[in-house]
From TrEMBL:
Residues 1-461 form the Major facilitator superfamily (MFS) profile domain. It is a multi-pass membrane protein. It is found in: Cell membrane. The keyword Methyltransferase does not apply. Keywords: Antibiotic resistance, Cell membrane, Membrane, Transmembrane, Transmembrane helix, Transport. The lineage of its organism: Bacteria, Bacillati, Actinomycetota, Actinomycetes, Kitasatosporales. This is MFS transporter.
Length: 477
């Protein structure tokens, strides 16, 4: 629960400020063009520095980096809550993301190395997967509550008591092996790998605002891909690689990484569209919007802890992953029937339940399988790679689907607006049309994730007699 508490804090901070953003913009005098940095500064630093954070955890020790990450995250949160200018808030959010990049991989690798018996491992990853999958929705609800009843600054201050509680629990309860003191940090790999990820995440984040053909966006994406290509080449020659090649050469593990990236790409797009649909089209308040996501959160937790955690110890991972992605995509397809007068209870609620159950069936086996059978000195960087797939997938999915929605909405309004008196109605219909087109793409991403899981995740069911996780899965190179 200590580890899960820290993971929840990291994940929900990606969305907790979304609902509070209008209030923060008014208070600090942010421009419309700069306000996105409140979100982007966090995701760019988080996604770009994860590999470095994972390797640092392996070298220094996971418990130590876990505590350092908690303290740093709390300090950055307090700084952001006390911000008196946009620049101060942007910097605090980037600092939050940097410490999150240390905290997240150390948290997941602590779960990996602490729980080795198949039954305990399944329960632990069920809890971890539930919070990792539902954290974004919980962030929307928490942001709505704090903004409506307290102040937008409490969306950042709230991390301080959470982190303090987690630090106390970590010092009292967590145990860890010493770090790999004989290892070295691959500085060249850090520059190329982390630099490439920062450029790619930043490029996709800016594409939503600037457009895909903007020279700055193209330069960031091209530069990021070039750095990542150089990073891949260097990792096969580096004496102490930042990302050991054997981690991603494993067929099952690579399948888990791809499944995670595609699943989250579809899910984060849904968070974006449904937040706007409920507030802009249906006229919900921030708090009511947050509450509307509760069934999704409850379904993810149920799918992770009551279904995945129970079957993971006796079932092959893809027997959970494939049905999970089919359920999630079917829920997404239900949302493609939305209209400007759609009823929440008849259209949105069933879709959220199906999506939540599907994601709950997916996250737990992905986390557990991707980190199974890894040498202890590589646990941190493997955990970081899973988190990187999640962050990069979310950034790419949000930018790609938002662009598709915007273009489709513009085309719909241009084709249907004949009478200026109907402009408001046609515009609302155009917005919903754009969302439904993007949701078709989101469902397609989830179906592709299911196909990849079926073809690549070939690990067998765990041996329930095994005392450790060593024979849990078959490694297929």
């Amino acid at each position: 629960m200590v580890i899960a508490l820290a993971q929840l804090m990291v994940v929900l901070d990606a969305t907790i400020v979304n609902i509070a953003l209008p209030s923060a913009q008014r208070d600090l005098g942010m421009s419309d063009g700069n306000r996105q940095w409140v979100v982007t500064a966090y995701t760019v630093a988080f996604g770009g520095l994860l590999l470095l954070g994972g390797r640092v955890a392996d070298l220094v020790g996971r418990k130590r980096t876990f505590v350092i990450g908690l303290i740093g995250f709390a300090g950055a949160s307090a700084l952001g809550g006390a911000a008196v200018s946009p620049g101060m808030l942007f910097g605090a959010r980037a600092l939050q993301g940097s410490f999150a990049a240390v905290l997240a991989p150390s948290a997941l690798s602590l779960v990996t190395t602490t729980f080795t018996a198949p039954k305990e491992r399944a329960k632990a990853f069920g809890i971890y997967g539930a919070l990792a999958g539902s954290g974004s929705a919980i962030g929307l609800l928490t942001g709505g509550l704090l903004t409506e009843y307290l102040n937008w600054r409490w969306c950042l201050y709230v991390n301080v008591p959470i982190a303090a509680l987690a630090v106390f629990g970590a010092c009292a309860l967590l145990r860890d092996r010493p770090g790999n003191r004989g290892g070295r940090l691959d500085v060249r790999g850090v520059v190329m790998g982390c630099g490439g990820l920062v450029c790619v995440v930043y490029g996709f984040g800016e594409a939503a605002a600037r457009g895909w053909t903007d020279p700055f966006v193209l330069a960031a994406l091209a530069g990021g891909l070039a750095l990542l290509a150089a990073f891949a080449w260097w990792q096969t020659r580096a004496p102490s690689p930042l990302l050991p090649p054997q981690i991603i050469k494993d067929r099952t593990r690579a399948g888990c990484f791809l499944t995670m990236a595609l699943a989250v790409a579809g899910l984060f797009g849904i968070f974006l569209f449904m937040s706007y649909y409920l507030q802009v089209v249906l006229g919900y308040s921030p708090l009511r919007t947050g509450l509307a996501f509760l069934p999704l959160t409850a379904a993810i937790i149920t799918g992770s802890t009551q279904i995945s955690a129970r079957f993971l110890q006796r079932t092959a991972p893809r027997a959970l992953l494939v049905p999970g992605m089919l359920l999630a995509s079917s829920g997404t397809l239900l949302l493609t029937t939305l209209t400007v007068e759609a009823e929440y209870a008849t259209r949105v609620l069933p879709a959220m339940v199906l999506m939540g159950l599907g994601m709950g069936l997916t996250f737990t086996p992905v986390f557990a399988t991707a980190t199974a059978g890894v040498a202890p000195h590589d646990a941190g960087v493997t955990s970081a790679t899973v988190n990187t797939a999640q962050q990069v997938g979310g950034s790419i999915g949000t930018a790609l689907l938002n662009t598709i929605a915007t273009m489709s909405s513009t085309a719909y309004v241009a084709a249907h607006l004949r009478d200026p008196a109907q402009q408001a109605q046609i515009t609302r219909e155009g917005i919903v049309h754009g969302y439904t087109v993007a949701l078709w793409w989101s469902a397609g991403l989830m179906l592709l994730a299911g196909l990849i899981a079926a073809l690549m995740v070939t690990a067998k069911a765990p041996d329930r007699r095994a005392p450790t996780d060593a024979p849990v899965r078959e490694s297929v190179a």
